[in-house]
Specification:
With 378 residues, the protein is α/β, with parallel strands linked by helices. 40% of the residues lie in helices and 12% in strands. It is built from 12 helices and 8 strands. The radius of gyration is 35 Å and the shape is extended.
């Protein structure tokens, strides 16, 4: 007789056996959740005045700009009541946007236009109305001198209220990459060839009889004339470079003639500008800014002091700089003008070693590793 397996089940009348699973399974629960659709458009009421708190800096900037004399900005507006044309943007708004953006480290018109669509502070300033980046950029370029005067007035007001003490000012320079490629730099011969070609194109456009819309013709003509003006400006900049002592550059960019090839912090070289920035140490407010074509910071110390004095009406009690500005001339100038100059002295040995390593020279071949034998002349 075969032995019964342990897994076999035996059912006897009147006996109940235990089962490992219930006979009928409970139906699985299907949860019903609210879906999240971020692609949909939603219309809902917004209380614009409650987008930012009462003590937000955007409100203070709006009030501050409104208290200044903005009449020069309104004089250039051509849109008036009773005549054709779209209404113009209020200079009070555009100035407030730029001042607030600068306070947050934003200097791009495109970025400000983007923030006007998503950032509560910008939305509060604009009343949730879009502002095109062309409007912002054109306003800044058109009123460049007026905005500089406005910047000085704002700083003067902050100084009067004791917010900017000028007790200690930090000064440094930084390289800003220009909008020009290395391949746009040309020598004088190449620039003159491009200039002759541009003049020929302008004449051909003027004498052309091809069917073309007025708008297309004006656009092409403007592009040709702009290129011609840039090339003429490039020749002027090339003459300026040649007149400078110690200048080794013999090329200039045809797209951005004002920029210069400068050394970068990473050891490379690129078309750049040297931006000098002076900041009040107490309130972290920028009190002076200037842009230079000189790559050497030490030559820009006198102009930096002049810029601070022009903007603030006075010189700082103490000026903190790095080793790039700590020269004999800077020390004497600071002493004559009653400024306490604080700066580190440059380490000539470390600077020399850094250059040797940058050039890929092994330490075993540094100049001090060699000795001269006078008898054998080797």
């Amino acid at each position: 007789m075969e032995e019964r397996r342990a897994s076999d089940e035996v059912f006897l009348p009147g006996c109940e056996t235990e089962r490992s699973e219930p006979v009928v399974r409970e139906k699985e629960k299907r949860l019903r959740l609210r879906p999240i659709d971020r692609r949909q458009m939603v219309l809902h009421p917004v209380d614009i005045d409650h987008l930012i708190p009462e003590d937000h800096e955007a409100r203070a900037i709006w009030e501050l700009v409104g208290s200044l004399d903005l009449s020069p900005y309104y004089e250039t507006i051509g849109s008036v009541e009773g005549e054709a044309g779209a209404p113009a943007f209020d200079p009070h708004l555009l100035i407030s946007l730029w001042v607030y953006a600068y306070s947050k480290g934003v200097g791009s018109a495109r970025e400000i236009a983007r923030l006007c669509g998503c950032d509560p502070a910008y939305q509060w300033l604009t009343g949730i109305r879009p502002v095109n980046y062309h409007t912002l950029a054109d306003f800044r370029s058109t009123h460049e001198n007026s905005l500089r005067t406005l910047f000085i007035e704002v700083l003067a007001l902050l100084t009067h209220e004791g917010l900017i003490t000028m007790e200690r000012v930090m000064h440094d320079g930084t390289r800003i990459t220009a909008s020009a490629g290395r391949d746009t730099f040309r020598k004088e011969e190449a620039i003159r060839e491009h200039l002759a070609h541009a003049e020929a194109q302008v004449k051909a456009m003027e004498a052309s009889d091809e069917e073309m819309t007025t708008r297309m013709r004006k656009a092409q003509d403007r592009a040709m004339r702009d290129r011609k003006e840039r090339l003429i400006h490039a020749l002027d900049e090339l003459d300026k470079i040649r007149s400078q002592k110690r200048s080794t550059q013999d090329k200039v960019s045809t797209t951005d003639p004002d920029c210069r090839i400068m050394g970068r912090a990473d050891g490379g070289y690129a078309p750049s500008y040297n931006v000098q920035i002076s900041t009040d140490a107490h309130e972290k407010a920028i009190v002076a800014v200037s842009i230079s074509q000189s790559p050497a910071d030490q030559t820009l110390f006198p102009s930096a002091l002049s810029q601070i004095e022009t903007t603030m009406g006075r010189l700082p009690d103490q000026l903190v700089v790095d080793a790039g500005f700590t020269t004999k001339e800077a020390i004497l100038t600071s002493e004559e003008r009653g400024i306490d100059l604080v700066g580190s002295l440059p380490d000539a040995a470390a600077h020399r070693e850094a250059h040797l390593r940058q050039w890929g020279i092994d330490e075993a071949f540094w100049p001090e590793r060699f000795s001269y034998d006078q008898e054998s002349d080797c």
